[in-house]
Amino acid sequence: MNTSPFALQIQNVCKSYDMYDQPFKRLVGFFSARARRARREFHALKDISFNVSKGETVGVIGRNGSGKSTLLQIICGTLTPSSGSVVVNGRIAALLELGAGFNPEFTGRENVYLNAAIYGLSQEEIAAKLDDIIRFAEIGDFIDQPVQHYSSGMFVRLAFAVIAHVDADILVVDEALAVGDALFAQKCMRFLEDFKAKGAIIFVSHDSGAITKLCDRAIWLNHGEMQVDGDARKTAEMYLEHLYSTQQDVSMKQGMSRQGFEDIDDEALWVDARQELLLNSTERNDFQLHRFTMDGSSFGTGKVVLHDVYLKDKEGRRLSWAIGGSYIEFCVQCTPLEDIDSFIVGFLVKDRLGQVLFGDNNCVFNYNNPVAVKAGQRYEAVYGFMLPYLPNGEYVASVGIASGTQAEHVQHCWRHDAFVFTVTTSHVVHGLMGLPLRSCDIKPVGQDVR
User: Other CB atoms closer than 10 Å to residue 175's CB: what's the count?
Assistant: First the structure.
């Protein structure tokens, strides 16, 4: 019985490749010592050592060419290190390159058997899990079509569905999730959050926000060398500072004055100074809004039925399209099935990786006067705010309906993906979202010291 506290132990791992000026010299090098001396040695990994404890999630971050993929392949056993050792305590499952381990001429169903067998499952075990795998993948009748006709998103769905059901002790997940759609990416992130309670995860991403959210600690690789192994947030911040340092002096600071925040309750004053310019340019922040469906996964007591989630403008018109920086109202319609005191309705807006960008509920607004609702009566909760600017991509809003207080409450209906929208154009270049600015001003202060 394995009593090691570590799921993965990596000691002094190096990976080198022989590089030749011309392809034919590689062949000559097999027979000539003189030709071999003319080779150059490329070090993809240099003396990498770290351990991953059981139940720990470790992120690996770095630029293209930093050695991330090489490290993952060595961990998974598809690549042999030039020196050093890798000890894996348990079954490891990986989602690396799209279609890896799949036969393009086999159907999805046949590839499930093939891929799961690679992980050591018997035919009987695979048959027992097959329905759950197909259900998780959500590719419908394509499960019986050759995978060579699959889109990249369908590849990811099926591949992730397999590794999610092979009873692995260690999961290795690369950037492949980036090609999936927003709803499936959310589903995968929820699975990874649950998996953290029982197994170890190696998660590779260029997205420092995803690393910070999911990982306990992070490893930063640069040109094959380990730069940092530490707290995920601090490591991500150091990596981000390094990226900027290659383009600019990160120690440079400029003063920026933001004035005139009095009377913030006057809605008419909340106009972004850039709004007119943005609305008439290709930098306009366009939101394509999708209609509410009853298909999303949910949980709760079932004492409240969720009917609809939508956005509307000041005039009360339902929107199919919205503009970042404009005033909107986020609306939730529901019906309680019994009388409920201290009624709470809230929402969270998340990006495709499950990171919460913003959200709110009525707890603070109704702190001194809790809302009581009657059974059978339909209610509409309305939240008015300035829509922030968001980068291009897909987003989802989860809706929660509960009773109690902010600290202690009972969830009656939580819908994970209640509202979906797509940002098609954007001027946001930094951060997870941008704010409509009341003012933006740079001016001299004091005397000229020249």
Answer: 17
CA 142 – CA 156 distance, rounded (Å): 13
133-143 pLDDT per residue, tens: 999 988 888 99
Q: Distance (Å, rounded) from C-alpha 438 to C-alpha 15?
A: 53
Q: Which two tokens stand for residue 59?
A: 């992120």
**CA 390/CA 373 separation, integer angstroms:** 35
* Distance from C-alpha of 200 to C-alpha of 54, rounded to nearest angstrom: 5
Strands 57-61 and 217-222: parallel
CA 181 distance to own-chain centroid: 11
pTM over 0.70, yes/no: no
CA distances from 406 to 300, 343, 360 (A): 16, 11, 11
Bigger pLDDT: 101 or 275? 101
Q: By CB neighbour count within 10 A (0-12 exposed, 13-18 middle, 19+ buried), where does 50 fall? A: middle
Strands of the sheet with 217-222, listed across from one edge: 92-95, 170-173, 200-204, 57-61, 217-222, 225-231
Other residues' Cβ atoms within 10 Å of the Cβ of residue 400: 24
The tokens of 2 are what?
Answer: 């394995």
- Of the candidates 191, 200, 190, 202, which has an alpha carbon nearest to the alpha carbon of residue 162? 191
Rg (CA), the chain: 26
User: All domains of the chain, ordered by start, with CATH?
Assistant: 6-245 (3.40.50.300), 271-425 (2.70.50.60)
Write the DSSP string, 14-67: EEEEEE-SSHHHHHHHTT-HHHHHT-EEEEEEEEEEEEEETT-EEEEE--TTSS
Alpha carbon distances (Å) from 71 to 99, 117, 235, 242: 19, 24, 18, 21
Output phi, psi for 257, to 5 deg: -100, 130
**Nearest-angstrom CA–CA distance, 294 and 26:** 61
Considering only 177-186, 251-260, 262-271, 395-404, which range has the smallest mean pLDDT? Answer: 251-260
The pLDDT confidence band at residue 449, using thresholds 50, 70 and 90, is low
pLDDT for residue 170 is more than 50: yes
Does residue 335 register a pLDDT over 90? yes
Query: Distance (Å, rounded) from C-alpha 93 to C-alpha 18?
Result: 30
Residue 391 CB neighbour total at 10 angstroms: 17
Rounded distance between C-alpha atoms, residue 22 and residue 261, angstroms: 66
- Look up residue 28 and give its two tokens: 């000559």
Helix (H, G, I), strand (E, B) or coil at 16: strand
